[in-house]
Amino acid sequence: MLMCWGVPGKVVKVEGYSAIVDFGGGSKREVLLVVDDVKEGDFVVVHAGAAIEKIGRDELEELMGYYVEMADDPETKERIKEVMKEWLER
Predict the structure, then answer these.
(1) Dist CA 16 CA 74 (whole Å)
(2) Cα–Cα distances in Å, from 48 out to 4, 20, 30, 62, 71?
(3) pTM of this prediction?
(4) Per-residue pLDDT tens for 20-49?
(5) How does DSSP assign 21-87, residue by residue?
(6) Tens-digit pLDDT profile for residues 52-81
(7) What are φ and ψ of residue 3, in 5° steps?
């Protein structure tokens, strides 16, 4: 079975049907918006270069918690927590 999963990010800028999304650690990419009503500061899930879902703060915290659980070293776990904190404070 093939499993695909999306990556959470924070929308930095919306430009028509695309957006610049911050994935943490200085990584920002342009993605296609396939969901409605996305604006700067929103959290989205990105898969295959497209924002496929807009998520709220609670969903983001839950999703990032899963990433922390899956991380195999303390440094990665801490970095994930730092990115989430940074996103939520802005």
Answers:
(1) 39
(2) 9, 14, 12, 22, 22
(3) 0.87
(4) 999 998 899 999 999 999 999 999 999 999
(5) EE-STT-EEEEEE-SSS--TT-EEEEETTEEEEEE-HHHHHHHHHHHHHH--SHHHHHHHHHHHHHH
(6) 999 999 999 998 899 899 999 999 999 999
(7) -120, 130
